[in-house]
Amino acid sequence: MKAIVYSQNGLLISDENALYELDVAQPQPGARDLLVKIHAIAVNPVDTKVRNGAPTDKPRILGWDAVGVVEAVGEAVTLFQPGDEVFYAGDITRAGSYAEYGLVDERIAGHKPRTLNDADAAALPLTSLTAWELLFDRLEVQADDNAALLIIGAGGGVGSILTQLARKLTNLTVIGTASRPETADWVRSLGAHHVVNHHQPLGEQLAAIGHPQVRYVASLTHTDSYYSQLVDVLAPQGKLALIDDPETLDVVPLKRKAISLHWELMFTRSLFQTRDMQRQHDILERVSQLIDDQTLQTTAGEHHGTINAANLRKAHALIESGRARGKIVLSGF
Hints:
Number of strands: 16
Shape: globular
Distance between the termini: 11 Å
Oligomer: single chain
């Protein structure tokens, strides 16, 4: 089967060897695996981080968002059958979705939303799982909570779905950050009550909209740049959740306000085969339902054409530029 791989980490994305096409053997499903013929994928920041930073001793297939059709199932599979349309974000330890076929454990896959095409559905799994877990599992927000949530980087992939989840499924006042007018408009269209500019002092802007302090912060990007400001604007006994990778994070400033710190990593459940691993299947099923009843909308931002090495290099370049809005999707081989 055709796959797009990398063999040497750290190459500039302009180098044709940074991502290239290769014929590889089609995988065979294990006991709880689905063998999926992949129709569409999305590209995430984690793809670029692994390509840049993770050495590999053999060609590695990236990609952790996929939509496709189940072609075969393992002997212990109970949640799906051949012919089902599925979407999933996969497992960081396994071969990814930049390929014609992929394997995924049934416990971390969901049935694709019926009302979306393949590309628009591919935008959803990784970001919706991350956003849902951050909001409801890490911050433990309740539906009737009437506090304020500040989302740093609300226009990105995770921010785009988190904004919708917080606005549609809770009573939170949703405050997103964006620095460009077009991104601010996008965040408002997704349901944010307010948008502030993360290139300007956050405290002054929050005070101006009547929220000098917030109970919750979801810091999705450049946490180390905003950290001191976040500590200032968080209310006593507030909660800070983050998903990015600051070089260091001094937790001592959180003590005076008794602020709790929460890390979200969507891959944790599959990485450690946790007892609640199937919660990701349940979340994706719920997201699919919310899409089909028009409570949520896809966060697909740009369609980069068919799944090939050249188009994937362009997608990686856009993500690395920091100017991507929503999700980058590709479909077909």
